[in-house]
Amino acid sequence: MDYIKAKTILQKCKDNSWFGNDYNMNLYRGCCHGCIYCDSRSECYQIEDFDKVRAKENALMILRDELRRKVRTGIIGTGSMSDPYNPFEREEKLTEKSLMLIDAYNFGITVITKSPLITRDIPLYKQISEHSPVLCKMTITTADDKLSRLVEPRVAVSSERFDALAKMSDTGLFTGITLMPVLPFIEDTEDNIRSIVRRAHECGVRCIYPAFGMTLRAGNREYFYQKLDESFPGLKEKYIRYFGNRYECASLNAQKLWQVFTEECEKYGILYDMKAIIYSYKAGYDDGQLSFFD
């Protein structure tokens, strides 16, 4: 494992509209999942050799110092730029140890991952939930394992992620799915959306937040088109024809998919509105203690 220098671990969020996060935390840099659509690969983030995972030097010491300097507790989000449960986490245990610190200083946590390794830390998430809000989310964009292997080649297939969600839900943890990005012409079918929502219900998932489309910009676009040529011959030309150089590439079926999605969620009692999700997973905790003051 290579290490990179870091001055800070917690970055203050401009607002807490994204899953109620007050801070973002990234203990690793880069990702080895190989997802063909990853926006974090974009040039604007300036992550060299993106597919190589590096840990942040003295991350836990820095995190401890930052946590103890905060006057009030809040919600820490992790998983936005690199998966906190990459394969190296089994040995490095930076995420596991950071959860211990988050628990010790009475902070809350929201996490996004694609790895069933998160189930290793169920006891820690349960411990944190005794005093602060916890939301554990899996990114799932297709219900089909063969397709998930094509678009997310070096990570657990969708069925394994659903199984992990079921294990966490069974313990009483508040679980969710980030259904994004739903790739145009690949995953944007009514059957796929219905299957994901139905499977989520079977696994006890409480919320799903979708994006029916994707983003493409320099760095990400070139990699994505290369992978389309390898796994979906002829589809790159379709993307170019319909989207050109746009940043936002919404599914042509987005309106219909949203209707199908919301109807299915309503049927199963699954939350999908961001404000409702935030309100629900924070319910029962003291809101007065859920904001940061430097």
From TrEMBL:
Molecular function GO terms recorded: iron-sulfur cluster binding; lyase activity; metal ion binding
Residues of the Radical SAM core domain: 25-188
The keyword Disulfide bond belongs to this UniProt entry's keyword annotation: no
Coiled coil: none
Keywords linked to the UniProt accession: Iron, Iron-sulfur, Lyase, Metal-binding
Matches recorded under SUPFAM superfamilies: Radical SAM enzymes (SSF102114)
Name of the protein this chain belongs to: DNA repair photolyase
